[in-house]
Amino acid sequence: MNFAEYVISGWVLTAVVIGAYWLWIVQRTKRAERTRDLE
Amino acid sequence: MSDRLLKPQVSKALGWLSLAALIVLALFGLWGAPPDEVQSDAQRLMYLHVPAAWIAYLAFGVTALGSALWLWPRTRATVWDRVAGASAELGVIFTALTLVLGSLWGRPVWGVWWAWDARLVTTAVLFFLYLGYLALRRIPASPDARAKRCAIAALIAFVDVPIVHFSVNWWRTLHQQGTVFNERLDAKIHGVMAFTLWFGVLAFTLLYAYLLDRRYRLLALDEDREEREVEQAIAERVGAVS
């Protein structure tokens, strides 16, 4: 593949950003639900 | 008042569907679609760059709609403020992705990471406008006061969206004109490449709907907690006085 470093960087970066954002939402939601249930 | 946009089962199904669509997109984008005649494999970044830009438009459009519905007295409801806030955050993330992916694509094709091109500059302005909107949402205020000023800010910021879109027609600079939605509405992409591009738009739209629902839920939980904390503080103050 030509320009592989740019293409792969773009695809990996997109996957990492979306994955990290999804994980952040899931973890914060779980924490918020736990706190609410404890009160 | 509901603290969810979608039923949990629907949200879960949408999440799995988005993941499956993204995997199929990666297979087509990296292997299935042929390399471009002129740009070779660098053009494979288009299958992410264009859908990300589409989601940025969609997200800011939903933010503007939610803001307008909140400002209109007959439709005013907390749900619209939350939808606007959740969608704006997604819009900022996808605008950032659009800029970075465009930069990664521009380097091998244009020879530069960045150019003071109309499309690039207006997109960067869009990013900072909505970053400011998100900062505005974090300034402490009563829920109504915050929702009102954020709704007005969102509607003002949305003016930049059509400017970004039409910038390539209004100013002829480095960025290419629209491949599909150009002045003549004459799509300059066909076959597997067109399919992959449209599939990318579909996959990212599914992902946006899923993430919007999840982010909305988190916003609702956070606002609920803030409300309980205020009530608790008031109760403690009243108890201390009496």
Describe the structure concisely for a colleague.
Chain A is mainly α. Chain A is built from one helix and no strands.
Give an overview in words.
The complex is a heterodimer of chains A (39) and B (242). Chain A is an all-alpha fold and 39 residues long. In chain A, 90% of the residues lie in helices and 0% in strands. Chain A is rod-shaped, with a radius of gyration of 17 Å. Chain A contains one helix and no strands. Chain B is mostly helical and 242 residues long. Chain B has one domain: Four Helix Bundle (Hemerythrin (Met), subunit A) (Up-down Bundle). Chain B has seven helices and no strands. The model of chain B has no long low-confidence stretch (mean pLDDT 93). Chain A binds chain B through residues 1-4, 6-7, 9-11, 13-14, 17-18, 21-22, 25-26, 28-29, 32-33, 35-36, 39, and chain B through 22, 26, 29-30, 35, 40-42, 44-45, 48-49, 52, 93, 96-97, 100-101, 104-105, 107-108, 207, 211, 214-215, 217-218, 221-222, 224-225, 228.
What labels describe this entry?
heterodimer, A: 39 residues, mainly alpha, 0% strand, rod-shaped, B: 242 residues, Four Helix Bundle (Hemerythrin (Met), subunit A), 7 helices, 75% helix
Task: Supply the CATH architecture of chain B.
Answer: Up-down Bundle
Helix tally of chain B equals: 7
Q: How many helical stretches of chain A?
A: 1
Largest sheet of chain B: none
Q: How large, in whole angstroms, is the Cα Rg of chain A?
A: 17 Å
Shape of chain B: elongated
Strand content of chain B: under 5%
Overall structural class of chain A, as computed from helix and strand content, comes to mainly alpha
Q: Provide the CATH top-level class of chain B.
A: Mainly Alpha
Number of strands of chain A: 0
